[in-house]
Design goal:
mainly alpha; extended
């Protein structure tokens, strides 16, 4: 008897949620994500060409400089509130790896800055990006150890 009542409540809840939820246009959302994500990549490639031809950077120096500029631009746009609007428009397209990661570090820091430097800014800065950093470091150490041990034999 309780299962039938729970099933009726669940169906009513799902019906209510579907009635009040805004309708999304999947094709438009996919196009926006593709266009904005592609545009961010085009900006990165443009920066790469500029740094390569104007400043004669190559290899790791070139990749590092482009990454730093994209991280700075993403953090700056997050700080002034523009990246949030880009994210609303683009959805997943704004999560291009390097800019999305910078946004995930800066956004919580901006949100909790009123709680002070240590408990707000420093503690909350890595609330989203922290697990990514931890698992990235742990997995890179594990892979390094595997290669080191394999090199011994």
């Amino acid at each position: 008897m309780a299962d039938a009542k729970n099933s009726t409540v669940n169906k009513a809840y799902i019906s209510f949620v579907s009635e009040i939820s805004p309708r999304t246009n999947e094709r438009r959302s996919l196009f926006n994500a593709f266009a904005v994500g592609g545009f961010i990549c085009v900006i990165g490639q443009f920066l790469r060409y500029i740094l390569q031809f104007m400043f004669s950077l190559e290899g790791d120096e070139l990749a590092g400089a482009v990454s730093m500029i994209l991280i700075f631009l993403s953090a700056f746009l997050t700080g002034i509130g523009v990246y949030d609007r880009i994210g609303k428009y683009a959805g997943g397209g704004s999560i291009v790896p390097i800019t999305g990661f910078a946004n995930s570090v800066v956004a919580p820091a901006m949100e909790f800055k009123s709680e002070g430097f240590v408990y707000g800014l420093a503690a909350k800065m890595f609330i989203i990006a922290g697990p990514i950093i931890v698992f990235g470091v742990v997995s890179s150490v594990a892979v390094g150890l595997i290669y080191y041990i394999a090199g011994l034999f």
